[in-house]
Amino acid sequence: MIGLPYLTKRIIVRSFLITFGIMILFIISSNIIDDQDYGHQRQRAKSPTASPYVGDPGGGWFKSPNKWSISNGMKDLIQAGKWRNNMQGDMLIDLDGGFEGRYSSYEDVENVEGKDGWVDLEWELVVTNYEGGTPGYQVFSNMYLINSVLTSVVPSDASQIIELPTDDEDAYQMDLEIQEQMSNKPKRNPFPEVKHILSSEKRGQGADEDRWRIVDQDVGRDEIGKKGYKLGGVTYIFNDPPGPDGYLVYFRHFVLEAFLGATRVLASTMPYSMFKPVPKRVWFPRCGADPSWRDDRGENAWFLAHALPSVSIEDKQGWEDRNTAGLPLLLEKVVIIDRWAAHASGGEVGKWGKMNALIPSISATRSFWDSIRSNVMRSLGVDDHSEVGSRGLPVVVYVDRQKENPKMKQSDHDALVEGLMSLTNIAEVHVARLSAMSKARQVDLVGRAQVLVSLHGDELFNTLWMPPREDSLVIELFEDGGFIRDFELLATGLNHKYIAVQGDKVLTEEKWRETGATKGDERDKGEISINTELVVRLIEESLGPDPELGSHSLAGK
């Protein structure tokens, strides 16, 4: 009788490992077969003879962010309930043959926010969406750059567009919404007039087809090509001409009006939880090396280098190089900034002569400028301090302009300084000649200010660095009968409170809107009289327990 071999521990372990390995190989081989089936299905979907149910571009459905255009057959499929949402929000379609497909663009680049990469335009030509804005500052997603022409792709049949929720909802709720939307037009923002987006060589007129085109998907598939490259993130395109004619060569106009306005408008189109409203690239398609977008003092280049250290900048030469290369580009998000498109709207912009006159009315989160501000402070090495004074008190900065023109009457200046020093028990007070300071010292000081006080002048540029608090306040001082709105737009555009003092009184918003920009006699004389007691009282009340009540009660007098 032959006995069974003696089972040692080594034999038992070896047998277990062999069995486990066979099981792993079985699982892997099954997955490979499934993946091959998926690949055959996807190739069939891309074939001209493929059924429209599985995403054939010729069959009439495509995906753009949260929107699907659906063929009649797909509508039947959805209404029959053969769809569902997974936890990641991807739309999964159950086909009659049991295949479950997940559709995305070439290499899934299209669905990855902020990522650059190749896209298959034959497989999925996404539509361009107008996200919002105001004349001169317009925000789009999924815009194409084709041979130096900004091109928007719109649905061939807009009646078939439906919107899908961006958050996870119960299937039955989504089913009801889709069925309801099937019978209605899509909720898409209509494009503004071209003259309010992009101007031509002639002021007040919209761009021609050598700069701006709108094509439907059918035309786009024929003209754009099969492959393109996606530039993820945000692109700022400044369409203004170079030199003084385009105003970009002035820091005040480039940063305080054009750039700040673009950033606020961009922020207004983005949920608070989305990525920060800063561009990855800045383009000047009409500005060459000379004339340029750069100013003589180098302030514009300084700002971009410190505020956006990683930004890429292209001018007219780069734009023309892209035209020569002929590679279709898909721009994930674009902000088009155009001074003359803003002025084409007339109204408040025309009244004040400021392209950013409507910017403060655009709603944006209080902290929308924080990334820009913190980058500048970090680059100058002044980002490690508290935003309050050394004794934990709020910081008040009075800008001394006594060596500038115009200046305050010396007696009024002395009285204002004395009055401010009486507030040192409730505030850290600084009397500063900002024009004599380095940029680092300017940014450091104003970067802690809760209240900034100054005669009208360029030193108020530094409002850019004030922390955006609920009680941050800019007080601008004018001669009797004078008012200019430049720095009101800057302060309110950054979500600071603003008060204009005109000689011996507070100039209310209602009043300055009625009178517009004005000039008093004292400005030409070079010395301005100011009621300093009024200014000190405004500051004291703004620092009190109820600054809202204090500011408004005085502003109404």
Topology:
Blueprint: H1 9-46, E1 62-64, E2 67-69, H2 72-79, E3 83-85, E4 91-94, E5 100-102, E6 117-120, E7 129-134, E8 137-146, E9 149-154, E10 161-163, H3 171-182, E11 212-216, H4 217-223, E12 227-238, H5 243-246, H6 251-268, E13 281-283, H7 299-307, E14 312-314, H8 316-325, E15 329-337, H9 339-343, H10 347-352, H11 370-379, E16 395-399, E17 407-408, H12 410-421, E18 428-432, H13 439-446, E19 449-455, E20 473-478, H14 486-493, E21 497-502, E22 505-507, H15 509-515, H16 521-525, E23 527-528, H17 532-542, H18 547-555
Parallel strand pairs: 9-11, 12-13, 12-15, 13-14, 16-18, 16-19, 17-23, 19-20, 20-21
Antiparallel strand pairs: 1-2, 2-10, 3-4, 4-5, 6-12, 7-8, 8-9, 8-15, 21-22
Helix pairs in contact: 12-17
InterPro entries: Glyco_transf_61_cat
Protein name: Glycosyltransferase 61 catalytic domain-containing protein
Domain Glycosyltransferase 61 catalytic: 352-469
Please report the distance between the alpha carbons of the first and last residues. Answer: 118 Å
Q: Characterize the biggest β-sheet.
A: 9 strands, mixed
Which consecutive residue ranges, at least 5 long each, have pLDDT under 50?
1-6, 37-108, 159-166, 181-186, 546-557
What level of helicity do the residues show?
Answer: 25-40%
Task: Tell me the Rg in angstroms.
Answer: 31 Å
Tally of helical runs: 18
Oligomer: single chain
Measured by DSSP, the beta-strand proportion falls in 15-25%
Q: What class would the helix/strand composition place it in?
A: alpha/beta
Mean pLDDT: 80
Q: Return the domain count.
A: 3
Strands, count: 23
